[in-house]
Amino acid sequence: MRKFQDKGGEDKEVVTAEDDYICINCCHPSSSLFLKYSDNGIRLTPCSNCGKAVDAYIEYDTVLVIIDLMLQYIEAYRHFLMNTSNRVSFMLFRMKLYLQYCHKLCIIFMLCDAYSKWIRRRIMLGNENAYDLEWKFYECLLQSLLEMTSFMVILALMSPNISTTLSINKMLQIFCAGSYGNVFAVLSVIWHLHFLWSYRVLTEMFIFISHVQTQQALYNVKLNRSIIVVVMATLVSRSIGLLVDSFCFI
């Protein structure tokens, strides 16, 4: 935390970090997210490039951030992926707790994806005994695990910053930001929508768009490049899934 005096002679403190933050509006780097005055007043740091607040989401409740993520706002993705480090102060406490459990969220998303595959396979095969249905679910779980792992590997290999070492937690965070649409599989059971192909297509489109937004927010690349990266990762992961699926049917 660095202290300085403004033009009026009032003491201020700037909360800084070793890794720079970015402006969620123009992606310009910034050394702080907010200014802390000596009288416990807090003011959002203005961006030196666009003049807007570097990250207005630090004042938002976590629920509002999640809503904006679901609405596919690129600013919300930049906030979640770039500005929610462990060095941010108390205003992001709940978001920090969320980031600490990314591996558990990945397991939940994998289970949701496996359940969705299991439902489709159950429709194709018809009624079977309980043992066969349980074994089919384990096969779908293995298929989802291989698909998600290959998807993350391809995204990492096609990253513009491939020379930069990405931590496992960061990769899981990136994957969670793009795969949370898998929870819609649970809603399909509640509302009996798992038989509708339109619902499945919309869910797949939502997950695809989320991954595209994640790539744009993380690397600040053009839309067409993000689409190409996500399409390649999807094709590779689905190809592996089809191989596993064909092997399970043998």
UniProtKB/TrEMBL annotation:
Membrane topology: Multi-pass membrane protein
Keyword Transport included in the entry's annotation: yes
Superkingdom of origin organism: Eukaryota
Pfam families according to UniProt: Arv1 (PF04161)
TM region positions: 97-116, 136-159, 171-191, 226-244
Localization in the cell: Endoplasmic reticulum membrane
Keyword entries, A-Z: Endoplasmic reticulum, Lipid metabolism, Lipid transport, Membrane, Transmembrane, Transmembrane helix, Transport
GO cellular component assignments: cortical endoplasmic reticulum; endoplasmic reticulum membrane; Golgi apparatus
Keyword Transport among record annotations: yes
Main localization (coarse): endoplasmic reticulum
GO biological process, alphabetically ordered: intracellular sterol transport; regulation of plasma membrane sterol distribution; sphingolipid metabolic process; sterol metabolic process
Protein family membership: Belongs to the ARV1 family.
Entry function: Mediator of sterol homeostasis involved in sterol uptake, trafficking and distribution into membranes.
Name of the protein described by the UniProt record: Protein ARV
Organism: Elaeophora elaphi
Phylogenetic classification of the source organism: Eukaryota, Metazoa, Ecdysozoa, Nematoda, Chromadorea
